[in-house]
Design goal:
The protein is of the alpha/beta class. The protein folds into two domains: 101 residues, Enolase-like, N-terminal domain (Enolase-like, domain 1); 268 residues, TIM Barrel. A hairpin with a 4-residue loop joins strand 1 and strand 2.
Length: 396
């Protein structure tokens, strides 16, 4: 069996794009992966197209060999969009291999430890604040609306959610996102008392609506520097956060924060390959290590999880994509022993379920692991073509 050809699909997802890679073999099996180029990965499709000539004609069952070839082809530009391109190819090859052998991908990695994957509702309230018309959901315009959103989370059976800092300006809530060049605070990324109070008010609204047992995470991305993250942690400390999530490209800075923080610290979603994770683990910077299976590739992600396990650290996948990506991340969650909880977006464009033949199934706050061969989720080409990508603007 050889890889014969490939095709890239791009689909409108409202304020972003869902992107897919399809690999075709000469004997029949077809492999799919989902990848992300909407945020922070410009030109990713072009990198995939430049790497694919090295994959055409290779045996899709020899995934480590393909990885070695692609690593050699890109050794002078390791990481970044190159790693993400290799990940997209690897994940599609794993889908082929599972289908060819008639088994789920998790069976290729020692089998599953669990088939119910605890999840948390990500960007909870945040998408409704920024893009309610696209999501088709009630708009979030106040902290009281956040409270009602938390009530909905609990009513729908989810046990945890993650939100983002909202500030009130001229009587209207706005996302605080200077790390993404949006609104107040860029490029200094300084904190002040108003921002710290706003962070606390955001979390307090979710606590009031969801009750004491609801797991609540606050994602602050790259929106502060070390001093600011420390002050935000102090501000939200009394709220009983499950974790404060943040991104810093200096492992010692996160380790300093973790040492003194009144809440657990989660980080790592932008790190690529074991080499990036190693200094953070050596500095004991994480309470939970966030691993992006779509950016790193499934095989590499399993290796990252194994390394984290040595340091007594659990892992949680970074997963804010579409249904195929969620299935890929769920296979990872099923496979690794040191699993914490899986991120997933519940709000999205109304046609998101159309672009796969079997969308996500939830029971009592758990994602039910697909059991078909490969990833167990098949994209629908006709549905993707019905929703071609449009120009999108990051909302404030």
């Amino acid at each position: 069996m050889k890889v014969k050809s490939y095709e890239i699909f791009r689909c409108d997802a409202g304020w972003r794009i869902f992107s897919f890679l399809k690999l075709v073999t000469d004997t029949g099996p077809i492999g799919w992966s989902e990848y992300n180029e909407s945020f922070g990965s410009p030109g990713l499709s072009g990198v995939i197209e430049n790497l694919m000539p090295s994959v055409i004609g290779m045996d899709p069952m020899d995934i480590e060999l393909v990885n070695a070839v692609l690593a050699t082809k890109s050794t002078q530009s390791r990481g970044g969009v190159v790693r993400q391109a290799i990940a997209a190819i690897e994940n599609a090859l794993l889908d082929i291999k599972g289908k060819a052998l008639g088994v789920p991908v998790y069976a290729l990695f020692g089998g599953k430890l669990r088939d119910r994957i605890p999840v948390y509702w990500s960007h909870c309230g945040s998408y409704r604040m920024r893009n309610p018309d696209i999501c088709g959901t009630p708009a979030v315009r106040s902290y009281e609306d956040f409270m009602r959103t938390a009530e909905e989370v609990k009513a729908k059976g989810f046990t945890a959610c993650k939100t983002n800092i909202a500030i009130e300006v001229d009587g209207k809530l706005r996302a605080y996102r200077p790390g993404f060049v949006v609104g107040k605070g860029f490029p200094e990324r300084n904190w002040d008392a108003f921002i710290a109070r706003s962070a606390a008010k955001t979390v307090e609204a979710f606590r009031k609506g969801g009750g004491q047992d609801l797991g609540i995470m606050l994602d602050t991305n790259f929106h502060f520097r070390t001093e600011g993250f420390r002050r935000i942690a102090d501000a939200v400390g009394p709220t009983g956060l499950t974790w404060l999530e943040l991104d810093i490209h200096d492992p010692k800075s996160i380790a300093l924060l973790r040492r003194d923080s009144p809440v657990p610290i989660a980080s790592g979603e932008t790190l690529l390959e074991r080499r990036d994770f190693r200094p953070y683990l050596e500095e004991y910077a994480f309470d939970t290590a966030i691993v992006d299976v779509i950016w790193n590739g499934f095989n590499e992600s399993v290796k990252i999880a194994a390394m984290a396990d040595v340091y007594e650290v659990n892992v949680a996948p970074h997963n804010f994509y579409g249904h195929l990506a969620s299935a890929i991340s769920a296979h990872f969650c099923a496979t690794v022993p040191n699993f914490r909880i899986m991120e997933i977006d519940i709000d999205g464009v109304p046609w998101r379920d159309e672009i796969v033949d079997n969308p996500a199934v939830f029971e009592n706050g758990d994602y039910i692991l697909p059991k078909g061969p490969g990833w167990g989720v098949e994209p629908n080409e006709a549905a993707m073509r019905r929703h071609p990508p449009k120009n999108y603007v990051v909302s404030q």
